[in-house]
Amino acid sequence: MADTLPEDPSFRDLGVSEALCSAIDKLGWTKPTEIQKIAIPHAVQGKDIIGLAETGSGKTGAFAIPILDALLANPARFFALILSPTRELAFQTNEVFEALGIHFDVYVCVLNNMYPIHHLMHHPIH
């Protein structure tokens, strides 16, 4: 699919479902960013992706959109686990998933287990 994209593709052109494209439109995202143009067509086909791009380039959308698209196609109570290296990035990711998933009853939760880790460091389980 990535080889046959128009020069200036829409999210629809990338293979994103109509329902999710509607949610994207409501957010005011008019066209995919470079990282999204490259990653989304592969991810919506179920392929693994690894991406590298600058801050603010749309990386979160590049993986959130395919995850939500797959969830809409195959609803499940627990669907995805996303690990983030920092608390701030976890909350940013949470915001994107909540914004995109608001019309689909998607529930997102950020778990911060720094307390249990800190506790286990001082009181290890034997």
Structure commentary:
The mean pLDDT is 88. The longest helix is centred in the middle third of the chain and has 15 residues, at 59-73. The chain is mostly helical. The protein is built from 5 helices and no strands. Helices cover 47% and strands 0% of the residues. The protein has helices spanning 18-27, 34-43, 59-73, 87-101, 114-122. The chain is globular and about 60 Å long. Helix 2 (34-43) runs parallel beside helix 3. It has one domain (2-122): P-loop containing nucleotide triphosphate hydrolases (Rossmann fold, 3-Layer(aba) Sandwich).
Defining key terms:
126 residues, mainly alpha, Rossmann fold, 5 helices, globular
Summed up:
The chain has 126 residues and is mainly alpha-helical.
SS element count, helices = 5
CATH superfamily: P-loop containing nucleotide triphosphate hydrolases
CATH classification class = Alpha Beta
What characteristic shape results from the CA principal axes?
Answer: globular
**Helical amount:** 40-55%
- Largest pleated sheet: none
Structural class: mainly alpha
Number of domains: 1
Beta content comes to under 5%
What's the total number of strands?
Answer: 0
Regions with little confidence, pLDDT below 50 for 5+ residues? none
The CATH architecture assignment turns out to be 3-Layer(aba) Sandwich
Query: Could you tell me the radius of gyration in angstroms?
Result: 17 Å
What string gives the helices and strands in order? HHHHH
Mean pLDDT, all residues: 88
User: What is the fold named in CATH at topology level?
Assistant: Rossmann fold
What is the straight-line distance between the termini? 53 Å
